[in-house]
Specification:
The complex is a heterodimer of chains A (197) and B (229). Chain A contains nine helices and no strands. Chain A is mostly helical. With 229 residues, chain B is mainly α. Chain B has helices at residues 3-15, 20-32, 34-52, 62-70, 78-86, 92-111, 126-178, 203-218, 220-228. Chain B is rod-shaped, with a radius of gyration of 53 Å. Chain B starts with a helix and ends with a helix. Classes of the chains: A mainly alpha (197), B mainly alpha (229). Chain A binds chain B through residues 16-17, 19-20, 23-24, 27-29, 31-32, 35, 41, 44-45, 48-49, 52-53, 56, 104-107, 109, 120, 123-124, 126-127, 130, 142, 146-147, 167-168, 170-171, 174-175, 177-179, 181-182, and chain B through 7-8, 10-12, 39, 42-43, 45-47, 49-59, 62-63, 65-67, 69-71, 74-75, 77.
Chain lengths: 197, 229
């Protein structure tokens, strides 16, 4: 990550291998951001590709003095995701869930057995459904803080808002997510109990 | 502290970012307020759920797809091209070419009398190569000629010996034909004489024959005769 500015310089000098290194270093993070935002793997892949194409085309506008490459990348990704959200708002109302979240593969933990895998999938689905219930502003704040692990300052740079707003959005997002998750768990509880009998 | 104030400080309290005074106030409120305790528990649970979520793996072809969309078909770098050239592959033509080159170099260096382990400045002069190659060529020719004459000598000795054996065999046969047989025609006895062994040439015969052959081959007349053949 410390070498990112040098890699960008080499990319701008026409060195394709440097672009490949950059891409390999950041694809996973951006894909996860897109997936957490959309909840659909194929859509997340398409968005990841679009974001990196945009990055490649605007690479000369990266300014190291204004922040790290990762922050700039996250800002471009976030803006693209917001644009995408606005663009597809109408379609989403009538869209069906054609992508099963369970088709994605998590990084397997070394000692994960079948039981742990099922539990992990259930938690992932629960979290994804909870995130989808949040408004985009709150969702992106929570994703950037708790899933992408950025600090408040970086989130403020990515979102282009003051740090106070970031804190407020993260807090409201967490409170909202906690309520949503509780509702969902309460709803799931009787269903599970009914299924068991 | 009100419920709303506590809600606003929930994240900072859970992240441990509050100063001592605010933290004491929050904890005091939580001791007395069950719904707020429950809320803080729920938020902690949500945060833990997010933080425990593992990263997802994108499809393996995603990077290739993006590379294709950005820089197009990936061109191999110089290092990759060199590595690809030396990568072991079944290239029979190349292997044959290398083998023939090595073979040719070894033949030329042998003919030129070069010792590749101890090269001297003199060895690098083409005139030295030519001189040595000429010398080696003459030496090989002489050896071949000698080998040829040696073969001839051996052949001559063998043919003479064969003639001697045949001559000796014919003499014995003639003697046998002339002397009447003493054995009874019906046989009946078991103490028959063993058959006579063929008479071999004596050592003196061989020495005489080889001296004769050498005289023929290496005398000027013999040499002329052999060169005419």
């Amino acid at each position: 990550m410390d070498d990112d500015p040098k890699l960008v310089m080499r990319c701008l000098a026409g060195e394709n291998s440097a672009w490949e290194v950059l891409l390999k270093a950041h694809t996973r993070k951006i894909f996860n951001l897109c997936y957490r935002f959309t909840g659909r793997p194929t859509e997340a892949e398409d968005l990841t590709q679009e974001i990196f194409i945009k990055i490649f085309q605007t690479l000369q506008s990266f300014d190291e003095a204004q922040g790290t490459f990762a922050t700039w990348l996250n800002r471009v990704a976030r803006n693209h995701l917001v644009d995408h959200y606005r663009r597809t708002r109408r379609d989403r109302v009538t869209s069906s869930l054609d992508d099963e979240p369970g088709t994605m593969q998590e990084t397997p933990s070394p000692a994960a057995g079948p039981g742990a895998e099922v539990e992990s999938r259930e938690r992932r689905e629960l979290l994804q459904q909870g995130l989808e219930k949040l408004s985009p502003d709150l969702r992106e704040a929570v994703i950037l803080r708790d899933l992408s692990d950025l600090d408040y300052d970086e989130i403020a740079q990515v979102l282009g808002v003051p740090q106070g707003t970031v804190k407020s959005r993260i807090n409201r997002g967490r409170l909202e997510l906690a309520r949503v998750l509780k509702r969902m768990e309460v709803m799931k509880g009787p269903a599970k109990a009914g299924g068991a009998t | 502290m009100t419920h709303l104030e506590l809600e606003n400080l929930a994240s900072e309290y859970l992240e441990g970012r509050l100063d001592v005074v605010a933290r004491v106030e929050v904890e005091a409120h939580l001791k007395e307020c069950g719904p707020c305790r429950e809320l803080i528990g729920d938020v902690r649970h949500a945060m833990e759920l997010c933080q425990s979520a593992e990263e997802l793996e994108p499809a393996p072809w995603l990077i290739s797809k993006i590379l294709l969309a950005t820089i197009g078909e990936k061109k191999p770098s110089f290092g990759e091209r060199v590595a690809a050239f030396f990568r072991p592959q079944p290239r029979m033509r190349l292997a044959y070419g290398i083998a023939m080159t090595v073979f040719s170099i070894s033949i030329i260096s042998n003919a030129a009398g070069l010792n590749l382990r101890h090269l001297t400045f003199e060895d690098l002069k083409p005139s030295t190569w030519i001189r040595r190659a000429d010398s080696t060529g003459h030496m090989m020719l002489a050896r071949a000629e000698k080998f040829y004459y040696d073969l001839r000598v051996v052949y001559e000795i063998e043919s003479r010996l064969r003639q001697f054996r045949q001559g000796a065999g014919q003499g014995n046969g003639r003697e046998q034909r002339e002397t009447p047989k003493t054995d009874s025609p019906g046989g009946g006895t078991t103490d028959r004489k063993p058959p006579e062994m063929p008479v071999l040439a004596t050592v003196q015969d061989v020495i005489d024959a080889s001296a004769d052959i050498n005289g023929n081959l290496f005398s000027p007349a013999g040499a002329r005769r052999s060169s005419l053949r």
